[in-house]
Every structure is written in C-alpha cells, then in structure tokens.
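Lecture 7, part B: from sequences to assemblies.

Below are the input chains for today's worked example.
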Amino acid sequence: MNTNSIFQVAQEAFLFYKNLSGKEKGAFLDKLADILESQRAEIVPLAVRESNLPEGRINGELGRTTGQIRLFANLVKEGSWVEATIDPALPDRSPLPRADIRRFLTPLGPVVVFGASNFPLAFSTAGGDSISALAAGCSLIYKAHPAHPETSRKVAACIQEALTASGLPAGLFTHVEGGIAEGQALVQHPLAKAVAFTGSHAGGMALFQLANQREEPIPVYAEMGSVNPIFCFPNKLAQETESLAKAFIASLTLGVGQFCTNPGLIFVPASQAKAFEALLIEELKGIAAAPMLHPGIAQAYYDSIQYLESREELRWIKVADPKHLLNGSAALAEIQVADWLKDKQFQKEVFGSFALMVVYQDVAELAEVAKQLHGQLTITVWAEAEELQSQLFLINLLEEKCGRLLFKGAPTGVEVGHAMQHGGPFPATTAPNSTSVGAYAIKRFARPIAFQDMPSGLLPDALQDHNPLGIWRQVNGIVTMK
Amino acid sequence: MNTNSIFQVAQEAFLFYKNLSGKEKGAFLDKLADILESQRAEIVPLAVRESNLPEGRINGELGRTTGQIRLFANLVKEGSWVEATIDPALPDRSPLPRADIRRFLTPLGPVVVFGASNFPLAFSTAGGDSISALAAGCSLIYKAHPAHPETSRKVAACIQEALTASGLPAGLFTHVEGGIAEGQALVQHPLAKAVAFTGSHAGGMALFQLANQREEPIPVYAEMGSVNPIFCFPNKLAQETESLAKAFIASLTLGVGQFCTNPGLIFVPASQAKAFEALLIEELKGIAAAPMLHPGIAQAYYDSIQYLESREELRWIKVADPKHLLNGSAALAEIQVADWLKDKQFQKEVFGSFALMVVYQDVAELAEVAKQLHGQLTITVWAEAEELQSQLFLINLLEEKCGRLLFKGAPTGVEVGHAMQHGGPFPATTAPNSTSVGAYAIKRFARPIAFQDMPSGLLPDALQDHNPLGIWRQVNGIVTMK
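Predicted structure of the full complex, as structure tokens:
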C-alpha cells in the first residue's frame, strides 16, 4: 500500500473504532496479550537472534509487554481516564444563564509510532507507544525498526490476529517497513495526528522539526535518552561504599548499557573517590564484553569512546577493550568537576556501558552542576536523610532538570505503573509534559473536546447524566462517581 | 531591566514561589482580585479609551477577569489539580520488589505571556493566561499589547501591589513593553519554559517557529482564532428562522465581531436561503458601524473585504459601508457550496463582523464540507434532534475539527468553568490538547515529575502518606481522598 492508501484505511478504521466502548477496546487488547503469550515460543527466539539480547531478558521483556497491554486494557475498561467533566446548565443564573457543557478526552486520529531498537518487544510493534495509542482510540501506523524486522512482522501478525478475532478493521494497525524516507513520508501525511519515537537525539529532533514544518504541525513525543546522573553524598557513600559500587556497575552495564535510563554520570566526593574507584574496578572485572544491539550502535559507542580518549581532562579508570565485532566493553573515566563544568560535551550520552565519574570537592559545588545540567529522564540522589536537610535548594534545582528523581536504587528498571513518569525536560524528550511509560502515556493520544447543549441521545456514555459507565467524573467542579 | 536580568529575577522568584502551598498561592490571587475590583473606577475608563469598546462591555470584562482569578484561586486552594498519583512500595512483590513511586504536577518555571488586543482585561495583563500560569506556580514575564499600554501598566501595578501585600517577590511578575523584537527576545531566552499567546495566525506561527528553533524547544500555546462555522439543518431552520437569524447576527456583530469565537461561516439549505437572507438583512439594519480595537485591525478588516469583493463566486447580501476611520461595518456574502469547497481561501478568518453564507443543496454535501474544514475553536450545529439521528457520521467528522461543539445558541460568550474547552485542532491553536479558558488551562504550565523512594520529610504535602491537603489522589490506581 502507498502512504496515502495506508492513511485512508487508518482514518476509516479510526472513525469506526473511536466510538467503541472502553470495554470493547480493552477486550481487544486483552486478546492481543493472550495471543502474544501463546506465541512466546516463536517470538522469543526471533527477538533474541535479531537483538543479540539474552533469552532471559527477552522472555522478561515479553512479560513486560503483555503486562503493559493489560494495564492499558484495564485502564480503558475502567474508563475514568477520559477526564469527564460536566458543568450542567444553570438556566436561572443571573445575569446570564449557563449552558450545559460537558468535556472529555477524545482520541486524536491516525498516529505514527516508530519502534525502538533497544526494546524489540516492549518499545516496538506492540510496545508502550503502540498500545497506549490503540487504548486511547487511535488507529496506528507503525514504522518497524530495521534492526528486528522478523520479530516485528511476527508481532504485527499477532496484532492482526487479535483485530480479526475482535471483529475490528485491519486498518487499525498498519505495519510499515523501510528506512528514513519511509518514516518521513508517514510523519508528513496530512492525516497523521501525532508521532511517538524512542531513539537517538538526532533522529528525534529530525522528526520534531519535520512535524513542526507541516502545514498542520503535530505533536512529536520523542524520547531521546539522557545521561541520568547519580549524585553521591559523602556520608551515604562512606556508609555503603560497597553496595553502592555494586548497584552502580550493575545498572551501568545491564543490557550492555543499552537503556534510556542507564547512568552515564556519577558525582563522587574527592575524599572518597580513590576508595570508590577501587571498588568499581573490582566490580567491572566481573563484567564481560557482550554483543550490542546492532553494528551501528557498537560503532557509535566506540566512536564516542575514541573521542573522549582524546580529551586530556579525562583520566581513565577502565578503558574499553579493543573493538571486536559487535561487542560492547564497559569503560569508565574520571574528571574533576571544574573541568566537567567547562564543556557541555561531557554531558553527551554515550549509548552503552560508559560512565564518567565526576569528582567534586564540596557538596556546595553541586548547585552549579545542577544549574548547568541538561534535562534528564532521571536523576538519582544517594544521600542520608540528614545530609539532605540542608540541601532543599539543590533538590529544587534537580527537580527542574528531570522527570523522575530517585533516592534509592538505580534508574534502570522502569516500573510500569500508574505513577511512573518516563520523560523529562529537553533534551531528554521533546514533550516534558508527557510520559512514554505508565498509565498516563495514554493521554498523549487524546485531546479535550467540549459539547455544549448536546442532545442527550448523542452524548457519549462517559458524559451521560446517569453515569452509565460508573466512572470518576468532575461535576460542577467536584470529583464524584455519581 | 534587560532580558537577562528579567529572567534571572523571574527564576529566583519561581524557585521560592513554587514551594508555597496552594493556600498561599490562592490567597495571593484572591488579594489580586480584590485590588482589581477596588480600582474598577480607574481601570475601566483607561480600557474603554484604549480599546474603543463600550463601558458596559469593559465593566463586564473586569468582572469576568476577577471571576477567572477567583476560579483559579479556588482551584489551587482545593489542590486536587496536581494529579497526585501514588504507587506505594511493594517490598515483597515477586520476582522483583516495587519501589515507592509518587507523581504529581510541578510548575514549569518562568513563562512568557502575550496580551491580546481584543480583551484588554480578560486576556491581557491579569487575564486567563497570566493567572493560570501564576496559579500553577510559574513566574511570569508579561508582554503587554501595544494597543492598551496604560491599561496594562495600571493592572501590572495592581499585581505588584498584590505581591507586596502577600509578601511575595516582585520578580514573580515582570511587565514588558515593546514591539516584535522585544517579544521575540523573551521567547528566545534560555530560562523561558513556555509561551502563551492569543492573536493572529501570523503572529502565533512566528512565535511557534521561534520557540521550536531554540536550543531547548518550548511549548507555545497560541490561540489563533477560527471561523467557527454554524451548520443550519432544514427542519430546525424552518421552525425557528426568525430567532436563529437574530441569534446569528447578534453573535456575528457582538463587539464589532472581534471575538475568537465570532461565527464567520454559516451553512444554509438552498430551499430556505432566500427567506433566511431577508431576515438577516433586516437584522443587520439595526447594527451600526462601530469603532474597532485599533487602526491596524480596521485596516486588516477592510483589506480582507476588498479581496473578497474581487472574488466572483461571492454574491453580496450586505456590503460593508465605506471605510470611515476606525469603524467596522458588518458585511455578509453568499457562496454556493460547490464553489466554497474549491478554495481554502474561503475558510480564512476575517477578524470583524463579516460572515460567508454557504448555500448547500442537500445535507449529504456537509460530510465533504466537514472533511475539508480546517480546525476550529467551535462548530455549531442547529438541528432538530430527529434530524441528527441519521447524521452520526457527520457529527463524528465535525468532532475531529473542533474543540467545542454546540447544539444551541451561539459560539460567542465563552463560559469560564470547569468543563470549558477553548482551543481546537490546528490552525485554531498550536496545542489542541490544551485550553486557554477554564480550569484545565492551568495544566499548560505544569509538567509531571515522579519521586522514587523519596524520604517522607522531603515529599511535598500533596504526596504525603496521610494526605494532609485532603485532596483527591490516585493510590494504586484507585481514586481516593484517603
């Protein structure tokens, strides 16, 4: 199908699908989760082969994918996510009567989702972006990531199977393969209403600019990664040196460092830098080089390392092993905070198991660090509660720079729940007011509409007087289930 | 102050103000409303003189302005708007424990608001955009509209008085005067986090592109008007010809047509076009030409009319009186639907009391009209309930093209309430997922942040276990006030 035909069927399918109940949409999603689980034995080996990720990880990722699907299925079956808000008519109000006004969220239309190479299942064909768009009531044009074409085709077939089994039009989901030109054509089509993307800064920004130059600009939800700094405070680090070293290296090297929330920057007090460094070296000994997702990513990793090796401000704690085919080898370097502050290059993400350890003299220096920090998906603060008492200003500054602020554990392992925020100030994402993980991700694909004095026979169930869906609504400004 | 100093004090003020309670923010807003009301006798004459609008309208607009301020004051004093969402830790969950994750909305930072010429009070210095930004917890750099400088200075002084009386830093609100260059400098400053604008398509798009070309792109909430079509169905029009003619002309000519929701397009069945036209001519006889907001707007109105007079597809029902200084004279022309469909020029907004009456032969033609229609703030359908039974597909198509869909009355007179949606698909606005009127307008100036395992001493009140604010929250996905 050419792009125009793809969007024509997607638009038709959308106009049918958007009016189905949340229960029907949820049943379709549940069916899809069932089908994916039933075909685990076929999907997992494909994804392992195409991503170079271990079977255990891919098995877990399939569980995460169906878990996400069921989360959104439950969300739309329950139904309160549409923010139904009703201001009933006040015919006797003086000086002017008030009309009856009812608002809720309505799906955007056909949307374009780009798959991510680092999550061949959970952020790809039936991943978080795709499912939150379908849950919202949009139709979907999915641009497969070229790194895992067979996995993508297989999952796409599962989606079509679920559509057929649910009596839904095939045009609700179209699987598109190709390169940059094919992706651009999708973003430029007049019927496209939004774009979701997870990947490189360059890729995300190219789509963002393209979408803004359309005759009708459309939102681009691009998640472009970040360096996810960890701030170690002196007392905390002194008391838990060993476990923090372990936690840091485990998070840094998980999945060969190929996570958006992989910590690429760690701030350590000078008084403990030597001791901490020794432990990190020890931990890294247990980490073997492992295959990366595809040759392009491995090449980019080694190119970045090579550039950093040319910078005399860095002292190398562990150099990367020489490049060997696809293998990514962990690397770690140290820099003084004064040098780090001088050049924003040291904030650039190196996708893979590389981190920069920034040595600071005094906690007071961290405010300047916070001010100069780019926007991040996550920031982690490792500190004793007492150490933070006098650091409220720093915490405030750090809040301005991230979407999620952690005080324990490591930033990798993003929980898929109701309260998760996976997004953050630019350049982490192009849309800091949205999340690509968790229940709120659905809101990216809907917009508010208000009906004024709509005949009750036309009102959607969510806005009917007697609340037939039994959802939480705001009536006259008061939250109620009545 | 130069731009840099303005933003430095705005950033400092923001970091102080954002942590104040909703009660403190609300008290400041209430104080501001009190001050504005107490200075009504000084404000109203200034605004009348600078806008050419009648005193009755400006008096009403001041009431609307303080009404909006109190709506937002109440919203932040109540506090539930922050969408507090808590997923408590599940330490015993298998295979992995769940961390404690708590999410809410946090203000963006310093934001830039541009005043609108057509609402010297309600969409200007202390208008809806300014107040929703301050209510959210942002600091504000306000670019005054050059059409009403004295009104703006006076209201700015009231805001400073309210800040002083509330013990808040002066840097929370900075009043900036100047032209395009001054406005652009504000949008380009690195500390600016969002822009709100109400005005022309060209002005809004220039700011939108400027903001997207920044090193850090920021959202632009530009409300750029629309033609707000009215669709008359045959039975309804037959039964209520006279009252609908009255309602249409009243809405068209209200405030010399200088409203964003002014209806500039009306679709009328051919069988009744003649009769309806006669009534419209009759109604227009009672409408005298009246002064427009400023000479630039009057000039643009007559330029648009002149262009349309050159189009042979139009038959003029009432021509505009010859231009006389500032006066805007209502005008009305007729076009056949087939001609209208051929050229998108006929969808262009003429800011002022001009409307195009589009004559259709059959209701079936309206689906094509809906498909070709640009995005609108409002669409109005005047139809008997029975006439709509078979028009669900058309209603669906119209929903795709507007932010508010009306079935009675006229689109002007935008209610400021909880359920209002004032925004719509492009080109009505650059951000259809937001509203510039009503309680939800506050959400434009906040973004989500999640705290993971934050020590309870640091948690904001909205996210404390025992819910000290008594707000509605989502805990484990369930809406609760506990």
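Note for the exam: Chain B touches chain A through 76 residues (CB under 8 Å). Keep this in mind when comparing with the next example.
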